[in-house]
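Let's practice the habit of predicting before peeking. Look at the sequence and jot down your guess about where helices and strands might fall. Then scroll down.
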Amino acid sequence: MKSLFLSSSFAQVADEFARFVGDDCAGKRVTFIATASVVESVNFYVEQGRQALQRLGLEVDALDISTATREQTRRTLQDNDYIYVSGGNTFYLLQELRRTGADQALVRQVESGTPYLGESAGAMVIAPHIEYARFMDDPAAAPDLDALSGLGLIDFFPVPHYGNAPFAAAAEQIMATYGATLALRPLSNTQAVIVDGERVAVVGA
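Done guessing? Here is the structure:
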């Protein structure tokens, strides 16, 4: 059964995640994938996310899928209790997931029940496709990405940072452009979407 926690800014909704998993995080290990931030000049949210996980009692096991071997990626995802994918450039993240085969390993783990925490780009990349992310992220960061199909773990499209600077205008542009054709789910920085099997709900304020 799939268990997903999708946010714009994990540090601002970490308490909601603790409630979602029953406050049972202490001593568990989370695979921490910050690959999406590698091509970004602003990446303070990576450390904020790491610290928020540690405050919950989780042991953070960093994994850069762009440099790890396939076996390292497979083993790390398999051995840890949670998977966390941070924000950054959604196109670069998808490129590296596809290039390294980490996409298949990640999907297998999530479909087998490993809880997935996706922040911003980490939430968008598991949608059916990521074309709509072009208003927030620069596709030029992923010159080798030849298809925009996402990981397909959800049938809707998270729109992170809705109403929040500096992405408020970009989020509104996504809503205006794709609102009539895609199942968009706008999320402010203080909200998250939880997927618990067949149940989908928005938490936070």
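How did you do? The beta strands are 3-7, 29-33, 59-62, 82-85, 116-119, 157-159, 184-186, 191-196, 199-204.
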